[in-house]
Amino acid sequence: MSAKGKDNTNTADVRDDRVVTNSLGNPLNEPYATQRIGQHGPLLLQDYNLLDNLAHFNRERVPERNPHAHGSGAFGYFEVTDDITDICGSAMFDTIGKRTRCLTRFSTVGGEKGSADTVRDPRGFATKFYTEEGNLDWVYNNTPIFFIRDPSKFPTFIHTQKRNPQTNMKDANMFWDFLTTPENQVAVHQVMILFSDRGTPASYRTMNGYSGHTYKWSNKKGDWHYVQVHILSDQGIKNLTIEEATRIAGENPDYCQQDLFTSIEKGKFPSWTVYIQTMTEEQAQKFPFSVFDLTKIWPHKDYPLRRVGKLVLNENPKNFFAQVEQAAFAPSNTVPYQEASADPVLQSRLFAYADAHRYRIGPNYAQLPVNCPYASKFFNPVIRDGPMNIDGNFGSEPNYYATNTNYQFIQQDRPIQEHQEVWHGPAIPYHWKTDAGDIDFVQATDLYRKVLSKQEGAQERQAHNIGIHAAAASPEIQERVIQMFTRVDKELGDNVRKVINAKNAEENAKL
Ligand code: HEM
């Protein structure tokens, strides 16, 4: 059966009569019998059913995602509630009330596939929309900013969040050594969020999603805007304290998976309201920092949220491996009128994800039921062959653009964007900026003084969460942590020092 045009449930190769076979369809007459010489003698190589069974078992795993290995997913829909056709011409937004089926996968970042749900970590919030114009992926996190703005730091950064190459343990020295290195302190705003209550969400249902990056959306007339997307939980924000998160990680490591699955199973469908912030090119030129700087937010008072629609998750996957583990989300999967901006981290992501999918799942990953663009269908006679091709491979269709064959290229009908970004300059090795400047601390300080101060006990918990974690680092790195948070706010730095000292004293008393 062709993968083109089918929905996400592939049952084509399963027998209805439930006769059990080996993987090539030959009936098994006994599940556990092995062919051997006599009752107690050695096995025979001719026992293909045994070989099939053992050999396939050895190949059950695909490599886990490098970051974001651990996650949960559910299907649902996006529904347009407000007209934004002046901003975006994508078909999914063209009619109020229109629904587009989607799949969302939530994840943690640094842990392995079997790690606990409630660890302190950003959460991934990736949504695949099966639109009539092809698949669109919004590969977002639950924080509106990110740790880095130089994409070449990504592998280094992720390594520091994973295991020490010698001890094979998570390592507070690696973690804080990277984040407190002067030029990496551009991460301080994100680190503030990570160590706030939002660093340990109570469930995937009670957290938001954010594009983080600036994107570039255009309408059908060719006018374009810079856009940031916010997906705000209708369940409200609920978080765990460090003590609750640590306890639950031990008692029920699958806490968030269970919460998501059971709430959908009970018909309590989680939903989110989707908003956009928009900015013109002229506004961007006057902005105090680059709109391509992923470590900064756009102030809501200057760039208010505009409602677009809602995201509802109402269907659990029938099979986790087929529909969540094999799901392949990529910022490069986009639709007409939604483009990436020149943000260098986003530009790098346009390469990284599809490359990861070719390695993790295989070059024909897009043919798998969960990934195939079944709502739009696929036609490209030049994209052919490759391992595990399962979609019929276009039969006798020429495998080049043959002269006498009628092809349609509808994208060419789109209007030219009248006012384009114009780029010029030499090809140079550009490293965004060396040490973090004061401007990189402004939003972190605002978060501490203007936002956390309004939440009962949040400033104290901030110092507590940082201090408990940093106390595991060396004294020299602890001092760098204290200095970095003192630059955010002196009171915060002082309180982090107190927590570190108290924790160190407690540990020493145990010796
Ligand atoms: C240079 C920067 C980055 C690189 C190179 C990168 C690379 C990757 C790679 C290779 C994966 C695994 C993909 C897979 O195996 O399927 C991944 C997963 C993911 N990344 Fe990134 N990433 C970057 C930055 C970001 C940022 C800034 C965000 C959020 C705004 C983000 C959100 C995610 C999410 C949500 C996933 C999990 C997707 C899923 O559920 O399958 N990443 N990233």
TrEMBL record:
Keywords in alphabetical order, please: Heme, Hydrogen peroxide, Iron, Metal-binding, Oxidoreductase, Peroxidase
Q: Which residues form the Catalase core domain?
A: 21-409
Catalyzed chemical reaction(s): 2 H2O2 = O2 + 2 H2O
| Bias kind Basic and acidic residues: ranges | 1-19
Pfam families in the cross-refs? Catalase, Catalase-rel
Cofactor dependence is on: heme
Q: Which CDD domains match?
A: catalase_fungal (cd08157)
Q: Give the top-level enzyme category.
A: oxidoreductase
Tell me, what is one Gene Ontology molecular-function annotation carried by this entry? catalase activity
**Catalytic site positions:** H68, N141
Q: Can you tell me which family this protein belongs to?
A: Belongs to the catalase family.
Instruction: Quote the protein name from its UniProt record.
Output: Catalase
Q: Which organism is it from?
A: Kazachstania africana (strain ATCC 22294 / BCRC 22015 / CBS 2517 / CECT 1963 / NBRC 1671 / NRRL Y-8276) (Yeast)
